[in-house]
Amino acid sequence: MKALRMTQYGEVDGSLEFQVVDKPSPKADEVLIRVQAASVNPIDNKILRGDFKSFSKVSFPAGIGRDVSGEVVSTGEEVTHFRPGDHVFARVGEEHVGTIAEYITVQVSHLARKPQNLSHQEAASIPLVGLTSYQALVQVAGLKQGEKVLIHAGSGGIGSMAIQLAKSFGAYVVTTTSTANVGWVKELGADLVIDYKKENYLDQLSEIDVVYDTLGGEYTLDAFKVLKPGGRVVSIVGDLDPQAAEELGLNWLIRKLLALKSRKVMKAAKAKSALYRMVLMQANGEQLRELGNLYQDNIISPVIDKTYSFEQSKEAFSYLASGRAKGKVIISMEEPATA
Ligand SMILES: NC(=O)c1ccc[n+]([C@@H]2O[C@H](COP(=O)([O-])OP(=O)(O)OC[C@H]3O[C@@H](n4cnc5c(N)ncnc54)[C@H](OP(=O)(O)O)[C@@H]3O)[C@@H](O)[C@H]2O)c1
């Protein structure tokens, strides 16, 4: 089968190539999926650039892509809830990365049925950003009806989903974006959209219950300036907090180094009697099924910026790397590309 593979660390051109590889076979608790659509995420580009190579090395050549939607072709002997012909979607586990390919195996616990009202392209837009936002806003922050949440970068893959998810929990949603995106981000349901090209959100906000930090850098520490005492800052790009480091099972020395790195942010949290947590999303078929219901019931809608064909996959990664995506960037195995 044909698959897009990383051949070395570096930029998209020169480090990604199509290769012919063996079609994978499902293990006992896995299914084999014929990929119909995939989506690309910043983590793919970060790994390709080598951002994590000091603690997690890639063994090249390696697959790329974590989101998939497609049709089950065959199942392992322990799989009872899915069968050939089922239409499914998933954020695959790290051991199965490589969804930009004709076929992929997925562990059954990471799988959910595709919402019937969505195309495979739409379904492929959901898993990674949906699970991240669910785990950050619902599981860790415990966002409640009536609370004020600040979601940075409302026009991104994460932000455009998170605004809708937070609204579905009855929260008051504030988001930031640039001038050109203000109108459509408001249409997603945000109650207050701050144009970061014209205004400084730090001058406008206070008493925020939950900050969803999707930008990192100075945004992580600045979150505490607008946070209510006792509030929660959940980051997906900031420093790893000691609890997250322990849950990840990192060794004592790495945890010590990370604790030093996160000292400032933990101090800022303590000064506000606030919670600071860094979320590293986990693949989870059960949560994906719950998210799928929100799409099935039209409470959340997919936000797709561009769709590329399989042959144009490298362009999809280059476009995402520009940092200007408006929603999700999709790779479609079958449909004509719209990009
Ligand atoms: N920890 C985890 O498990 C996890 C999971 C998923 C994602 N992430 C991380 O979360 C980050 C966001 O992911 P994503 O998929 O949303 O990325 P993305 O789709 O590439 O984000 C692009 C968007 O960011 C907006 N943006 C850029 N700078 C901004 C600023 N200063 N203020 C407001 N908006 C700004 C852009 O809007 P404008 O064009 O209007 O500026 C654009 O719409 C990435 O770093 C990703 O790696 C972490």
UniProtKB/TrEMBL annotation:
Residues 14-331 form the Enoyl reductase (ER) domain. Keywords: Oxidoreductase. PROSITE patterns: QOR_ZETA_CRYSTAL (PS01162). The keyword Cytoplasm does not apply. It is an enzyme of class 1 (oxidoreductase). Its EC number is 1.-.-.-. GO terms for molecular function: oxidoreductase activity. SMART domains: PKS_ER (SM00829). SUPFAM superfamilies: GroES-like (SSF50129), NAD(P)-binding Rossmann-fold domains (SSF51735). The keyword Amino-acid biosynthesis does not apply. This is NADP-dependent oxidoreductase. It comes from the Bacteria. InterPro entries: ADH-like_N (IPR013154), ER (IPR020843), GroES-like_sf (IPR011032), NAD(P)-bd_dom_sf (IPR036291), Quin_OxRdtase/zeta-crystal_CS (IPR002364), YIM1/Zinc_Alcohol_DH_Fams (IPR050700). Pfam families: ADH_N, ADH_zinc_N_2.
